[in-house]
Amino acid sequence: MATITTSTSIIGIQCRFKTPSHHFFNSCTNFSLSISSPYLTHHKLSSHTMPPNLFRANPSSAIDAPSEELEASSRGGIGANDLLIVGPGVLGRLVAERWREDYPGCQIFGQTMTTDHHDELIKMGISPSSRETKFTSKFPYVIYCAPPSRTEDYPGDVRDAALKWSGEGSFLFTSSSAPYDCSDNGSVDEDGPIVPIGRSPRTDILLKAEKVVLEFGGCVVRLAGLYISLDTDQRSREDRGAHTYWLHKGTMDARPDHIVNLIHYEDAASLSATILKKRLRSRIFLGCDNHPVSRQEVMDLVNKSGKFENKFEGFTGTSGPLGKKLNNSKTRAELGWEPKYPSFAQFLGVSD
What we know:
This protein is an alpha/beta fold.
């Protein structure tokens, strides 16, 4: 028999590991922190972003231990404004920035599928954890930003996140506007008709996840197409959005008159933070810039901006479903929210 007992301070959560000793060193490699990613290099580590002894691992096991057990809690317990972000990607990280501006003393935790980006999260003052982490306390605020593409049971994962919510502040699920049942370029608002279950596997997954959230008393924000320019290092920017995909392709076999709806990532984050702070229950909101445009108009604006090396040649499709024109005036009026970027054209700095 072999037993290993070790205590080490790593990042913002207290953990206890129980694992066979011959697996211990392999397990520890998951927590190696090489703060070397080019993403968000302007964020510096400090005593604020990485408090001492905030994450404590105590591996103690025997050779016949059946599995690894992870128990976690924050150093001083969970505070009234602490936030758990499930899926802290581009949107989740922007939500974290907004949340810390409003609540500078709060703790922010980020649950990820892998440990690949944990070093980046630490730089931002987000304490990373994995799906296997078992928190000893629940969170007053939880936002679910993870996409359905990396899991076989999306509604189940959303339920697991809801179970980490204390029921006090808010639980918010970031969904898509895809469930709105309109394919003739017609107008749709928050109360528009929904695609029936069984018609589309994609919308089925989203609607089942939304149902879980609403049953728990959480809120849903259905977001239009997201886009952004990201600083990837000191010298360049990376654009994300449908326009970058179309630009890369050069031509697309799709209808040019199909209407699309957009919202900047920063606006999606500010809207999400606003909903969280309202502490509402079982509500559905809509996130868009209220400036629907056709695919052709999007790429005309891209070409006109002169900000991209490539030129888009055109859409060649002549058939297929059209889109919808989203309007979230009700969401704006209730929440008192307005976007920073009221249109894709203004984001690019060109007239539409």
